[in-house]
Amino acid sequence: MLLPRCDLALDSSFSQGAQRTQKAQSGDDGEKGEKGEEGKHGKVGPMGPKGMKGELGEVGDQGNLGKIGPIGGKGDKGQKGLPGASGGKGRAGTVCDCGRYRKVVGQLDISVARLKTSMKFVKNVIAGIKETEEKFYYIVQEEKSYRDSLTHCRIRGGMLAMPKDERCNQVIAKYVSDSGFFRVFIGVNDLEREGQYVFTDNTPLQNYSNWKEGEPSDPYGHEDCVEMLSSGHWNDTQCHLTMYFVCEFVKKK
Ligand SMILES: [Ca+2]
Ligand SMILES: [Ca+2]
């Protein structure tokens, strides 16, 4: 608000007089106050920025051995190796002693034939002894004379085989041929009376015999014992000859 000019001058002079008469003096400064108590804790500040990545640590100790793994699959077959170096040259041959070699080859042939016979024998042993409902038959593979053959069978509780009918004869004949043998003594002879053939139990040949064609023939009076051929046929022959033979054993009921 604007005042008139005269009022302004009057007011100015009054103000100067008052300063001269009523000027008050200010007091002494007070003593310094005591130190205030410690202020309260400030609020928790905000999270600082992420620090820098640390340095690489030292290498640790070696760990224990791990468990054994499962067995792996079979590997593929490797490639064929390279051919080996050729051998050295052989020594010069000698002149062929052909006659001598032919003899050796001949002996080998005989040995092979014997081996084949042995093989048949082994098959026979595996097959076991032959039998009918009443009897067992067994070829004794020891070459013996007729009388020794008789004794051999008897001391074992049997008899030299007596084929008294076609069926028994066939069983023994098959046994002989399957075994690869050519002839065996059987229990037939005319030792007591020439031409009067009997079985070894002294029974005469009544209903059955199986002579080979032309047998028995005893041109010199020396053939008093009987062999069976692998064909099953009979032939009178000399008793002192040695050959395999067939024993028979009656089955115990
Ligand atoms: Ca005779
Ligand atoms: Ca004869």
Average pLDDT reading:
85
CATH class of the domain at 130-250: Alpha Beta
- In the CATH hierarchy, the architecture of the domain at 130-250 is Roll
Helical proportion?
Answer: 25-40%
CATH superfamily grouping of the domain at 130-250: Mannose-Binding Protein A, subunit A
* Strand numbers in spatial order across the main sheet: 1-2-8-3
Topology diagram in text:
Layout (H helix, E strand, L loop, with lengths): L4 H17 L76 H30 L2 E2 L3 E10 L1 H10 L3 E2 L5 H13 L4 E7 L8 E2 L25 E5 L4 E4 L5 E8 L3
Antiparallel strand pairs: 1-2, 2-8, 3-8, 4-5, 4-6, 6-7
The protein binds calcium ion (2 copies).
Protein name: Collectin-10 isoform X2
Family: Belongs to the COLEC10/COLEC11 family.
GO molecular function: D-mannose binding; growth factor activity
Report on the architecture of this protein.
With 253 residues, this protein is an alpha+beta fold. Among the domains are: 99-128; 130-250, Mannose-Binding Protein A, subunit A (Mannose-Binding Protein A, Chain A). It has helices at 5-21, 98-127, 146-155, 166-178; strands spanning 130-131, 135-144, 159-160, 183-189, 198-199, 225-229, 234-237, 243-250. The protein starts with a helix and ends with a strand. The structure holds calcium ion (CA) (2 copies). One calcium ion binds next to strand 7. Residues 132-248 form the C-type lectin domain. Its main location: secreted. Residues 1-91 are annotated as: Disordered.
Describe what is shown at a glance.
With 253 residues, the chain is of the alpha+beta class. It has helices spanning 5-21, 98-127, 146-155, 166-178, and strands spanning 130-131, 135-144, 159-160, 183-189, 198-199, 225-229, 234-237, 243-250.
